[in-house]
Every structure is written in C-alpha cells, then in structure tokens.
C-alpha cells in the first residue's frame, strides 16, 4: 500500500536533504511513496514545486492548519526536521497524525529530529557513557524540561502515546557536508567559523578542545531513509520510549579542524595568520559567531560519551569517518565561500524572543 510522507523544514539544510534522499530511492520500498514538504513562504513553495516536490506553506504553530494539512494530504509518516526545541510544533503534528490514524484506520508514524549534545555534561546530562539503548526517556523525565530540546523530546513521546502514534527520535550531532536540497545547503558550525574568521581576519579556537559526535549530511539522510524503509516494510524496530537513535558516525576534534581552517583561509589571503588563536572570551565568541550565550560553550567545547547502537543494529552504514572529513576540509571552506548566502545561523531565531523554530 502506498504511503504519503511529510517532511517539515523542506527548504532547510537537513529537511531539504531528506526530501532529496527520499526522492532518490527509486529502487527501494520508498519508491511508491508520495513526498510532501512544509515550508514557510510562498517563494519557497514555488522553488520546490519547480522540482516536482509537493510543497505546503504551513505555520507549525497553527494547530488547525497542521491538522488540515495532514488530513487533506492523507499523511501517514512525518519526518520533523523544522524545529528540535519547540514542543508546540510536535504536539500539533502528532495530534494531526493521531486524527489521521482514526480517519484512515492504519498506523501513523512520527520521526523527530532532536539534539545529540543534550546527552553530555554540557547539556545537563550526568557524566559517563550513555547509549541510545539506555532508558533515556525516563532519565529525561527525571532531569525535567528546563532544556527546550529535552522538553520537546518528552512532548513527542507522551503526546504520541496518547494519540496512538508510533515515534522515533533521531538525535542529530554536528552535521557537515554540502546538502542536496533545493534550499539551504550548508550546516551551521563550519560556515559560521569561516564567515567569522574572514570578518575578524583571524581563526579563533576555544580554550578547551571539543570532541563532539558528528555525521556527514549524506549519512544522516540515509538514516532517515532507512527508518522510513523499516516502517514501510513493517519491520519491528525500537520505537516510542525505546526509539532513540544516536545519528553519530564518528567524532571530530575542533583543535584538529581549526588549524586546517586557518591554513586554508590564509592561503586564500582571507586571514592574516596561518595559525588559530584562542578566543579572548566566550562572550566575544557568542557575539561574532551569532550563537546564543547559553549554548556557545556547549557548541564549541562539548564532547560527551555518547555511544550509538540502535541505528547500527537496524543496518545503518555511514560512509564518512573523521579522516575523510579532515581530508575534505578544503571542500568545506570552498562550499562556505561559494554558497553561504543564508542568515548567519539557525540559532538566530533563538536570539529573538518571538520565534522558536530552528529549521526550514
């Protein structure tokens, strides 16, 4: 039976790349599915529609509009990439899937994109190793909802349980590489470092190295597609309270990255020194990188001891590792210089009290 899939944030870096990945799967069970994508503006609707994508202009804050879009388009699966830390968005979407389940008489599924760095000390998680097979939902409940990402995770699981919707939580790490969507094609971190370094004439690193989990965008979208395939094939895989998936292919060292950025930018005459200097303060880093003060330390120095199990057990096979990433650093620089015409950071909306979405 054919399925209709809705990807939120269809003009964003991850969402647009997920849409492209699903449309490319012409030899899998996804082939018969119809893919829709939500966007924020009419201009984005026109842009995606030119490429044969069923684009829907939708305000995710509007519960009635979300319900109408899901029911009218008979959506069975939602891949939510537009906002990792807005509980009302997931509540509206899951309620809509619950209603769709009642009307259509078949299972509905919600794949949520969350934040992997929450599962480290800088994210308020207890020290020590943490696996995605651990009782993470129970621990998130114990820690409370002071972190917006954690509050959203809890909302996903609890709302879905009430509505009878099957859920999967993909914990997204630092993502790199050029995206394949029809909108934003660059990630947050490295383009921000490139842009800021050129502005200041110096490449800065933090006073403490970070060794965060990371994944190339193509490997990340392959995981989303794999989850969809498992759903369509009705294979029993971890879901709900047990359905956490650490989308981690490897780790990266910022102190290994920054010298390469300095060398690459200096070679192009864009910075004055071929070596990275240390940020004078976290406040300065926050100001120039356009990262919220409450997140700048975690984004620049976090490490953690996250261990992915679930994704690999269902057959995920990432193609990128740290060595390949570092060897391709010049490509990251070139992509940032050629294509980085979008706002400074996805976190701009967190800097504005009237906005909360983190994608699209």
Automatic annotation (TrEMBL):
Give the GO molecular function terms: aldehyde dehydrogenase (NAD+) activity
Query: SUPFAM superfamilies of this UniProt entry?
Result: NAD(P)-binding Rossmann-fold domains
Which is one Pfam family of this protein? Epimerase
Recorded GO cellular component terms are: cytoplasm
Q: Which residues form the NAD-dependent epimerase/dehydratase domain?
A: 5-230
Kindly list the residue ranges recorded as spanning the membrane.
none
* PANTHER family named in the record: NAD(P)-BINDING DOMAIN-CONTAINING PROTEIN-RELATED, PROTEIN YEEZ
The name on file for this protein is NAD-dependent epimerase/dehydratase domain-containing protein
From which source organism is this entry? Microdochium trichocladiopsis
């Amino acid at each position: 039976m054919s399925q209709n899939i809705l990807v939120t944030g269809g003009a964003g870096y991850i969402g647009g790349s997920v849409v492209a990945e699903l449309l490319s799967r012409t030899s899998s069970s996804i082939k018969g599915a119809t893919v829709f994508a939500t966007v924020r503006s009419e201009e984005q609707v026109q842009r995606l529609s030119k490429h044969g994508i069923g684009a829907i202009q939708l305000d995710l804050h509007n519960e009635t509009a979300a319900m109408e879009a899901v029911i009218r388009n008979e959506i069975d699966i939602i891949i939510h990439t537009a906002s990792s830390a807005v509980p009302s968005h997931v509540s509206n979407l899951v309620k809509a899937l619950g209603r769709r389940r009642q009307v259509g008489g078949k299972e509905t599924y919600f794949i949520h994109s969350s934040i992997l760095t929450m599962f480290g000390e800088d994210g308020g998680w207890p020290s020590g190793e943490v696996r995605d097979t651990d009782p993470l939902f129970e621990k998130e409940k114990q820690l409370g909802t002071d972190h917006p990402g954690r509050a959203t995770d809890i909302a996903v699981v609890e709302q879905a349980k009430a509505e009878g919707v099957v859920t999967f939580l993909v914990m997204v790490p630092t993502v790199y590489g050029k995206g394949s969507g029809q909108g934003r094609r660059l990630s947050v971190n490295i383009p921000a470092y490139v842009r800021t370094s050129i502005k200041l004439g110096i490449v800065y690193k933090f006073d403490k190295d970070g060794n965060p989990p990371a994944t190339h965008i193509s490997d990340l979208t392959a995981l989303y597609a794999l989850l969809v395939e498992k759903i369509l094939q009705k294979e029993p895989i971890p879901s709900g309270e047990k359905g956490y998936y650490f989308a981690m292919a490897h780790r990266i060292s910022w102190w290994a990255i920054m010298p390469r950025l300095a060398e690459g930018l200096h070679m192009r005459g864009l910075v004055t020194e071929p070596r990275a200097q240390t940020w004078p303060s976290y406040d300065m880093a926050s100001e120039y990188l356009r990262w919220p003060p409450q997140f700048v330390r975690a984004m620049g120095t976090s490490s953690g001891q996250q261990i992915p199990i679930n994704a690999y057990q269902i057959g995920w096979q990432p193609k990128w590792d740290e060595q390949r990433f570092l060897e391709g650093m010049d490509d990251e620089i070139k992509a940032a210089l050629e294509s980085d015409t979008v706002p400074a950071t996805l976190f701009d909306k967190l800097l504005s009290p009237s906005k909360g979405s983190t994608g699209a």
